[in-house]
Specification:
With 413 residues, this protein is mostly helical. The chain contains 16 helices and no strands.
Length: 413
């Protein structure tokens, strides 16, 4: 494809009404996800003073992805993805409204906030198998890479905007304002989905159950080494990389002595650069580069997180996190693209479900891992040790699965 046509591809996708509205609904939900993460983390550290308590509450957000991710993939194969996502958006709107009322009436507790993040975790268990697969369906096979990179860029923008908004609300209105924003965001996403035109996928053969579909996905992975490696590296990054975010409220408030807004800016820094980088990827990426970018960018991200752990002050921490955004963008953009491009069409949603299980398996373990280390080593040291462990595990994965090695000759485009 000529470069001019590739650079126009994101604009052509967004010109499609249904794709644009489904994409915008996901953007609203993403902003609310990161706003809530900053607000709840700040609320819990204020109420308890314990890094481990922050990790435990955020653990509850990720656990549903492990428990329900595979079932979400099977459900996505059988049901109308738009209706599933619409029902989930409406449920989140109701939960955010209830938590907002509790906060403004002065009755909100850490336990209420924990219950809210559990419901959020169930919602986010649908992200890969339902929402992202639906975006791939709306984009079509020739545009899988563009659609996933565009979605990754949007996710990075919401990770930049959400914590800043959350920090500003915590410094002014309090957590009730964050929950009220969540009510409006998820409600707006539901309204957008009402007008999306989407053809329900074909149902699986009669007589097959959810468990059979899940078994098929597990059986498929060993015969598709790139798919297996993609899932394994996702586990590695979610145990040893991304949980650093759970420690940012602790590091910002305790180590760097920042207010909530400045701490939110740290949580947004990586996303600011990832947003721009993912837009470039969306315009220029070709399937021949998917795997190389996935692996190299993941390693670069972990190296930058080690740099963040060594930062003595706010400017150095900000610089390291800005640099990490380049690696994050490459890794996150290619997660979905590798599966949509490389998996058999009948297996795409189910392998997306396995990706959700991988995130759910790694995220809670990683969050608890860094939380326990932070209690004994301090939050910054814990983040550095965790990222170094991640680089070692990536090296082991490349040793065990040769198909992942980025220096190998890529497949023909």
């Amino acid at each position: 494809m000529p470069r001019r046509a590739r650079t126009a591809a994101p604009r052509r996708l967004l010109a499609r009404r249904s794709f644009r509205r489904a994409w915008a609904a996901g953007a609203l939900a993403g902003a609310m996800r990161w706003l809530e993460m900053l607000a709840v983390g700040w609320f819990v550290i204020e109420q308890t003073g314990s890094p481990l308590a922050v990790s435990l509450v955020l653990f509850l957000r990720q656990a549903p992805m492990l428990l329900f991710g595979a079932f979400a993939g099977a459900l996505s194969e059988r049901g109308d993805r738009r209706l599933i996502l619409l029902a989930a958006m409406i449920a989140m709107t109701v939960v955010m409204a209830a938590l907002s009322i509790l906060s403004f009436t002065g009755t909100l507790t850490v336990w209420h906030a924990a219950a809210g993040v559990v419901v959020s975790g169930v919602f986010w268990a649908l992200d890969f198998p339902v929402r992202r697969t639906m975006l791939g369906d709306l984009a079509g096979p020739p545009h899988f890479g563009t659609a996933m990179a565009l979605d990754s860029s949007t996710a990075s923008f919401t990770r930049m905007l959400g914590p800043l908004a959350g920090g500003a609300l915590m410094d002014t209105v309090g957590i009730g304002g964050a929950y009220l924003a969540g009510t409006l965001g998820f409600g707006g996403g539901a309204l957008l989905l009402l007008s999306v035109s989407y053809r329900r996928p074909l149902a699986p053969p009669t007589g097959r159950g959810f468990l059979a579909d899940i078994r098929d996905a597990f059986a498929y992975l060993p015969h598709a080494p790139v798919m297996l490696g993609t899932v394994l590296l996702t586990v590695v990054m979610n145990i040893f990389g991304f949980p650093y975010l759970s420690m940012i409220p602790v590091i910002g408030k305790g180590n760097l002595e920042l207010n909530a807004l400045s701490t939110g800016s740290l949580m947004s820094a990586e996303a600011a650069i990832a947003f721009v980088t993912a837009l470039v990827i969306a315009a220029l990426i070709r399937p021949v580069h998917f795997l190389r970018l996935y692996v190299v960018a993941g390693a670069a991200f972990l190296a930058c997180i080690i740099g963040f752990s060594l930062a003595p002050g706010y400017p150095q921490a900000m610089t390291a996190l800005l640099a990490s955004g380049i690696g994050f963008a490459g890794f996150a953009s290619m997660q979905g693209a590798l599966i949509l491009h490389g998996a058999a069409p009948a297996m795409r949603a189910r392998i997306m479900g396995m990706m959700t299980v991988a995130i759910g398996a790694g995220g809670p373990v990683g969050t608890l891992h860094v939380g326990f280390m932070a209690e004994h080593l301090g939050a910054q040291a814990a983040v550095g040790v965790m990222a170094a462990e991640g680089l070692a595990c990536m090296a082991l994965a490349l040793l065990v699965i040769p198909a992942l090695r980025p220096w190998r000759a890529p497949p023909a485009p």
